[in-house]
Backbone:
C-alpha cells in the first residue's frame, strides 16, 4: 500500500540523518484498527541492516519525527517490530481540503500514452453470454481507470463475423428457418441466430451417430458428416463472394448487430470504433511476405511460412498454410500493424481476452517485436479467468450458456424481489422503482464480477450478488443513497472547513482512506486490475457506515462538528460515486 509522498520523504530524512542510510522504497501501511496510530512502518528489514533491535530503532525514528516535524507528527508507538505513527489532525484536514470531484484523476497531457484497448470481440453466431459480461465489464472499467493516469484511450471492438461457425447458423436457417425474422418471430436478432447455431449442432450430432451405427469410426464419421460438408461448401462460396451467400450473410449479421447494440446499451458499454474480422482477416498476408524476404520468417519443406520462436521459449509457428491461406494469428498481426499505422502516436495495445489465449498473445507480441515495431514491448494481454455456474462450464453449441440478456432480466427481478421485501421502495413511483431495480440489478452484476482479480475464476451466484449487507454493489449504493438523504435533510450547502476540530478515530479512518484514492487508481492501472478499485470503494463505504452508526450527524449539538461530518459525508459520497463510475456502475439518489 502506498502512502503520502511527504510522509515517506520525512521518514527518508530520518534514516539519512540518524543512520546515514539512504532508505529507498519505504512502504507504509494503514495501522490496524486494534492499535493506536495512522500509519505503520515495519522495522525488521531495517533492524538487520542497521544492526539495531527493532524497538530501539523504532523509538529513535519516532522521536526524530516528532521533534523535527511537530506540525505533522503527533505521537508514535513501537509494538513488536512495528512503528505506529499518529499524524496531527490539522495535517490530515489540510490534505483533506484538497479533495474535489476530480480527486486522483490526472489530466491528459504529453506524458500520457495513447492506448488502444480491445474488448468484447463477440461472434455473430450467438448472443452475448455471461463470459462476455466479464469481458465487457473488465474492458470498459480498465479503460476508465487508465484514463485517471492521464492516458488517452481508444476503446474498440473486433467482431468475429466470418468463418465456419457463422456458416453453421446460416445453413441451419436456410434449412429450417422458413424465412423467420426477428420481426416475424418476436425474437431478438442475436438470439434468433443463436437458436439456429444450436439446431445445427443437434443435427450434426444426429448425423454422426448414424454414421457410427453404419460402422465408421468417430474420426471418419466427423469428416464425412454431410451437414458439415455443406457448411464448408458455404464457407468457400462466401470466400469467393457468391452474391446470394453474401446477401444472406449481411442480412443475418445485421440482425445480430441490432441485438448486440441493445445488450451493450443496457450494460452501459460502448466503443470508439468497431472493427470487423471480415475486413481484417487478410491484412497480415502482405506483412508475412515482406517478413519472409527479410528472413524474419522462413518457408518450410511443406511450403508453409513459419517463424521459429524456440530460442524465445516458444515454439515454431505457422503463419501461412502451404496453400497460402492465412491462420488466425496472421489476421492479428495485420490488424495490430494497421492500428499502429492508423493511430501514429499509439503507444500500446491492450487485448481483453480469456486466459485460454495466453500463449497466442505471447507469440503475437514476440512476432511484432521481431518485425521491429517499438509498440510491441508495451502490448498487453489482460487475461481473465472463466465465469462458471454452480452447474459447471457453459457450452454455446449445446445451448447451455447463460445468456447476457436473460441474466440481466434475472438480476432486475432479483433486485425487485429483495428490495421490495426489505420495504425500501414504498415511497417511490412505479417508474422510479423500475429505474432503481435496474440500477441495483446491473450494478450488482458488474460489481460481483469486477471485485474479483481478473486472473481468478468466478463462480457466479445472482442471489449472493444482491445483498444489502454484504460485499456487494447494493451495499455501497445504499450507503451512497443514505448520505444523499442525510444531506437533503440537512439542507447541506457544502461549506468549507475553517474551524479546527478534534478528529474521532472513525473520522480519521475515512480521511486517510480518501487521501489514499490517487494511489488506488495508480495501482489498479499499473496492475490492470479493476478489483483494486472495487474492493477499495467497498472498504470506504464500510468505514462510513461505521461512522454513521457510532456518531450522530444531524443530532450533533456542536455546530462545527456537525458541519464537518456533513462535509465528510458529502466528500465520501463524491468519491464513492467517482469510483463506481470508473467501474461502470450507476448510483441511485434514493433507496
Residues:
Amino acid at each position: 500500500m502506498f502512502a503520502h509522498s511527504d510522509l515517506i520523504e520525512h521518514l527518508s530524512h530520518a534514516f539519512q540523518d540518524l543512520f546515514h542510510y539512504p532508505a529507498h522504497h519505504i512502504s507504509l501501511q494503514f495501522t490496524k484498527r486494534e492499535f493506536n496510530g495512522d500509519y505503520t512502518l515495519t522495522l525488521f528489514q531495517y533492524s538487520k541492516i542497521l544492526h539495531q533491535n527493532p524497538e530501539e530503532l523504532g523509538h529513535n525514528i519516532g522521536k526524530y519525527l516528532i521533534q523535527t516535524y511537530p506540525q505533522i507528527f503527533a505521537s508514535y508507538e513501537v509494538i513488536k517490530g512495528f512503528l505506529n505513527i499518529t499524524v496531527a489532525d490539522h495535517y490530515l484536514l489540510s490534505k483533506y481540503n484538497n479533495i474535489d470531484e476530480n480527486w486522483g484523476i490526472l489530466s491528459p497531457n504529453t506524458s500520457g500514452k495513447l492506448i488502444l484497448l480491445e474488448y468484447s470481440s463477440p461472434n455473430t453466431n450467438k448472443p452475448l453470454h455471461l463470459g462476455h459480461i466479464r469481458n465487457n465489464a473488465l474492458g470498459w472499467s480498465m479503460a476508465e481507470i487508465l484514463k485517471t493516469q492521464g492516458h488517452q484511450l481508444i476503446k474498440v471492438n473486433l467482431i468475429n463475423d466470418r468463418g465456419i461457425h457463422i456458416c453453421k447458423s446460416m445453413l441451419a436457417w436456410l434449412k429450417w428457418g422458413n424465412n423467420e425474422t426477428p420481426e416475424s418471430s418476436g425474437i431478438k436478432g442475436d438470439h434468433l441466430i443463436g437458436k439456429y447455431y444450436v439446431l445445427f449442432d443437434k443435427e450434426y450430432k444426429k448425423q454422426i451417430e448414424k454414421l457410427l451405427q453404419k460402422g465408421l469410426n468417430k474420426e471418419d464419421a466427423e469428416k464425412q458428416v454431410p451437414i458439415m460438408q455443406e457448411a464448408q461448401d458455404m464457407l468457400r462460396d462466401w470466400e469467393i463472394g457468391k452474391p446470394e451467400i453474401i446477401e444472406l450473410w449481411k442480412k443475418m449479421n445485421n440482425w445480430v448487430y441490432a441485438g448486440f447494440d441493445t445488450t451493450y446499451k443496457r450494460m452501459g458499454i460502448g466503443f470508439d470504433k468497431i472493427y470487423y474480422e471480415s475486413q481484417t482477416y487478410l491484412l497480415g498476408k502482405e506483412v508475412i511476405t515482406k517478413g519472409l524476404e527479410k528472413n524474419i520468417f522462413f518457408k518450410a519443406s511443406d511450403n508453409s511460412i513459419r517463424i521459429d520462436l524456440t530460442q524465445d521459449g516458444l515454439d515454431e509457428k505457422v503463419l501461412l498454410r502451404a496453400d497460402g491461406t492465412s491462420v488466425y494469428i496472421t489476421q492479428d498481426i495485420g490488424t495490430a500493424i494497421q492500428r499502429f499505422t492508423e493511430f501514429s502516436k499509439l503507444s500500446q495495445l491492450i487485448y481483453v481476452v480469456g486466459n485460454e489465449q495466453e500463449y497466442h498473445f505471447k507469440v503475437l507480441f514476440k512476432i511484432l517485436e521481431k518485425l521491429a515495431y517499438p509498440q510491441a514491448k508495451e502490448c498487453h494481454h489482460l487475461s481473465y479467468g472463466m465465469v462458471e455456474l454452480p452447474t459447471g462450464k457453459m457450452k454455446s453449441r449445446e445451448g447451455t450458456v447463460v445468456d447476457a440478456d436473460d441474466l440481466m432480466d434475472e438480476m432486475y427481478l432479483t433486485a425487485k424481489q429483495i428490495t421490495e421485501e426489505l420495504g425500501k421502495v414504498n415511497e417511490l413511483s412505479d417508474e422510479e422503482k423500475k429505474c432503481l431495480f435496474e440500477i441495483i440489478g446491473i450494478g450488482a452484476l458488474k460489481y460481483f464480477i469486477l471485485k474479483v482479480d481478473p486472473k481468478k475464476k468466478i463462480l457466479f451466484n445472482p442471489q449472493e450478488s444482491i445483498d444489502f449487507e454484504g460485499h456487494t454493489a447494493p451495499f455501497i449504493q445504499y450507503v451512497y443513497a443514505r448520505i444523499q438523504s442525510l444531506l437533503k435533510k440537512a439542507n447541506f450547502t457544502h461549506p468549507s472547513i475553517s474551524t479546527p476540530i478534534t478528529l474521532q478515530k472513525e473520522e480519521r479512518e475515512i480521511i486517510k482512506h480518501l487521501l489514499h484514492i490517487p494511489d488506488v487508481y495508480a495501482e489498479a492501472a499499473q496492475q490492470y486490475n479493476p478489483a483494486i478499485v472495487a474492493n477499495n470503494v467497498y472498504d470506504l463505504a464500510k468505514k462510513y457506515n461505521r461512522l454513521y452508526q457510532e456518531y450522530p450527524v444531524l443530532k450533533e449539538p456542536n455546530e462545527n462538528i456537525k458541519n464537518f461530518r456533513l462535509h465528510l459525508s458529502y466528500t465520501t459520497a463524491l468519491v464513492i460515486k467517482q469510483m463506481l463510475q470508473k467501474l461502470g456502475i450507476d448510483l441511485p439518489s434514493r433507496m
Notes: The chain is about 55% helix and 10% strand. Confidence is low (pLDDT under 50) at residues 393-399. Residues 283-325 form one domain. The first helix runs from residue 5 to 19.
